Protein 1
Amino acid sequence: EPTKDPSSVSELVPDRNNLTHLLALARDPNARTPDLTKAFLQDPVVTLELIRTYQFASGRTAGAPLQDLKDVIVLLGPALIQDLCEQLLERQQFNNPNTVKWLTAARKRCVKAGNIAYKLADTLRGSNPEEARIAAMLKELGDLELICKHPEAYVGHAEQLSRVKLVYQMAKEHGFHPDASAVSFLKRMQCPQNLLELIDPEASPSAAEKTKLRMICRAASEVVELDSQENLEKLSPTKTLSSRSALRVLQIPPNQYAELFEEFTSIIDHVNKQEALAPAPEPSPARDELESTPQQEETSSETEVQHPNHLLDDLNEIVEAELAPSANDKLENVEPLVDEVERPTLIMAPKLQIDKPMPRFNTVAIDSMIANSAAIIATQKDPMDTISSVMESMITQSPFSRAALVLVNFETMEAQVLEGRGIGFENGGVSIIDDSNSSFLSREVQIYSFAKQGKHKTLFGSMTYAMGPVGMNDSQTLLLYADCGPNEVLPFASRRMFRQLLTMLQKHCGGVLDDDNEKFAQQEESQ
């Protein structure tokens, strides 16, 4: 292992954790092909190397068509896959945590694009969703190549600049644009021609269906690009898409697009959580041992390799040296350690138990909840009681987990929680607004579904929320606030629901601050 981080590497850097998991699957005689396929699709570098190995081993000409990784895995067999993983494990790695962080972000950008393209192709009845997934994933390889060639420059700019400025600065300094460099790199790697047709903007599609799949890949790139710019709201179903948008060219019906947009947010949120759950980038002692003794696996006995408790021979030798005063203790401790190797990988991360999973609502459930709230608004006469009842239904019948009624005073710059539902709210609590650009000082509806910047963070610790005025006058605003928790995004169902509920409340009790200030002041004191 080098003592300092390399200034660049000659080859793309794969994910070592995913490679370790792939190596374990390749050695397991009971491993299923879908599990191997899913693991390969977690890393675009490994996927590309698998395709190249298949073309070389099968004697196919460079650029021969390829549509499904499952067929490739079956034809290669576990022995060749194991050799491929061992070769990739020998590649030079970056040690700088910041470089590893941006490498992971670039790798996950590819995974997001692939999953979104698959969902689009499957929903729009594309001829081959798997082909669209692989092409969209490889289309985003430009950032990975750029980080490997100029890690210091990329990390330095990425920590300070926005995504748009980062791409411009790297193109200005190094003449390197991610999209163009990805196409050039794939041509040098002799990528299959049918995939290049979907990636290269200058290539001529061989069929009409290829034109549609190419537009799907462009749409997937558009989604992940706006996500990296923290501007995914631009594609919201409530917004008008740009005339140059690939999603608009696909002419998706409004109802279907609303469902697709919610799927996009779910995919992005799922992959982002996998990033947060990934193990530390520093190589563990087991990986150091693996690098320093590459011949150890070849000399181990065949029985140990095939036994499910000996997926990693070198790791077990270290464990057996530290543990087990008896044979029984040894057997009890080895099994959990094999799980510990697999659990931090990208494949095992979704098995993490979540205390309160966010419900997914269909159109019928949304309309039912809004109808119930409309009935509450129609029957309640007192504005404060009406808002309180609607907030209660928001918590119990919608994706929202927290809601609050907040009174903001523009003169004193104070925000007082008149009534709260959910964890984290203290009725009557007053917070000082020390930022003149705070969303609480706005008189418009504020919805941040994917906000990551500190300036969007609310007084309640959440960066994703929905907030809008129920009533206002010159010096005060009465805000309805709701979110799905500090670390959750807002699904499309909650955004649509919030806008409709806010509109109904504004019509019913929008004069609560203007028509009866004295009564409202008394209610505020009683709260």
Protein 2
Amino acid sequence: MGKREPDQARNSFALTARAGALYSCRILYPDIPVEIMPAKLLKLQARTDYVDEVYKVLLDAISSGSLAPGTRITQEEIAEQLAVSRSPVLQALRLLKKDGLVVDAPGRGLLVTPLDPAWISHLYEIRGALDSLAARLAAERGAKIDKTIIANGRRVSKSDDVKAMIDADMAFHHAIYTASGNPLIAETAQMHWVHLRRVMGAVLQASGQRKSIWDEHAAIAAAIAEGDGRRAAELTDLHTANARKNLVERLGLVLNEQRDRESEAT
């Protein structure tokens, strides 16, 4: 295999069939048995300063579900698959741990942090407040959201590329933050987007919600373009509430499936 450029690292995770089944909602809770890291990594070009690249690869994998909540990961396996030394891997894992995306595993290694419904609810409360404020301010300023952002979002929503869907969703909301004219909104939101990415990945796994998400985005953009701040804020509140509801429902299904399996085992 030929060498790959560093910026291709972000695409270096490929889901195996086992990983796909894993993410179909079987280890979103910490009490579910730990699985060994299933993702396969492509080698990186030989260098020693790969901390940012390794961090981005792992962040994308956690966000998209290639590394599902509860999955065990080790620096040795990551270093081997990426063909880098352990040093940048160790530093990248420390950053992920600081961000709360991985936690210490029993015995050895780390676990991808399980999703906690209560914590997610708090996260969406913060997101909802910021997004609603940004939408209202953008409308009051007479801003307009680039229609190509929505067109691209609709296009990728028809694919199976979860990372592309997350990126498109983020692009839409960041466009509103910018249009609000208040730079502190984007700065504050940025603190939480690293976690929102993985939560969004869980929501976007449900294909039935993808079209409605972009229908809601289009309605918000239309209200902003019309200068109706109140309507833009209301639609944004509804959009956030729907996203939170969809995720809670998915987590509920996971818990029910887990209980059913435990009942069958006994």
